[in-house]
Write a structure and sequence with these properties.
Elements lengths: L1 E6 L4 H16 L3 E6 L19 H7 L4 H24 L3 E5 L2 E3 L11 E3 L13 H4 L9 E4 L25 E4 L1 H14 L4 H4 L7 E5 L3 E3 L6 H4 L1
Parallel strand pairs: 1-2, 1-3, 5-8
Antiparallel strand pairs: 3-7, 4-9, 5-7, 6-8
Helix pairs in contact: 2-3, 3-5
Length: 228
């Protein structure tokens, strides 16, 4: 399965992490390539979508009056949407990878439906920001590809159509099928953009994970969605 490692061009630390990521995936036999990510300086080159009313993405602009952060978050979600369009165009499952992902296991036959999270063993451990709220959650690991558990604690709380949905624990590494990609793009076209780890939710997609994990987080989280 082909994978694309997204990084920020000309950002020294992002490029460094992307190289470590690339080498780790190659070591485990993956077919990967580096992909220059979308930024506030390049987002005008990509399709324009409405922003979901009441969304967290909208709140950076409406409530916080922070246009730069809004554009950073919008760039992040557009990386995922353009990736989904690639999945549709190539009509086969692909891997979305961020610069701080690192392969720990080879990929065999990943039999999933729409969306499969690849880094489930480190989702709530340092340096993941989710550790602050969910470090004590006892994940009921089951071998192979599984649906997210019923008591999954990462839930969408904003008052939009996605209220109460389960969320992906970030977008560091996941597989997306053409079926899932079509649902994701259709949701954005119909309802508008939301923050990247909020638009990937159980209202839009069937959320699954694989255990043992294929990917883990690198030791340092650059957190560029806040600091870029």
């Amino acid at each position: 399965m082909q994978g694309f490692i997204h990084y920020v061009k000309d950002h020294k630390d992002s490029e460094k992490q992307a190289k470590v990521s690339f080498d780790s995936f190659k070591k485990h036999g993956y077919d990967v390539e580096l992909k220059e990510g979308i930024t506030p300086d390049t987002i005008h080159n990509y399709p324009k979508y409405d922003v979901l009313a009441g969304s967290r993405l909208e709140s950076f602009l409406v409530n916080d009056k922070n246009e730069r952060k809004h554009l950073v978050k919008k760039s992040c979600v557009m990386n995922n949407i353009m990736f989904a369009k690639r999945v549709i165009d190539q009509n086969k499952p692909l891997l979305f990878l961020e610069h701080d992902s690192i392969a720990v296991n080879p990929i065999d036959n990943l039999d999933f439906d729409e969306f499969c999270y690849l880094a489930i063993e480190t989702w709530n451990k340092p340096p993941s920001t989710l550790r602050h709220k969910h470090s004590r959650y006892d994940f009921p690991y089951k071998k192979g590809v599984q649906d997210f558990p019923e008591n999954w604690p990462v839930i969408y709380h904003r008052k939009t159509r996605y209220l109460g949905s389960k969320l992906t624990p970030g977008t560091i590494a996941y597989a997306l099928s053409p079926k899932g990609a079509k649902k994701l793009v259709e949701a954005v076209e119909k309802y508008g953009l939301e923050q990247s780890d909020f638009i990937i939710n159980s209202h839009v997609l069937r959320l699954q994970y694989v255990f043992p994990a294929l990917v883990k987080h690198q030791q340092v989280n650059l957190n560029l969605s806040h600091k870029l």
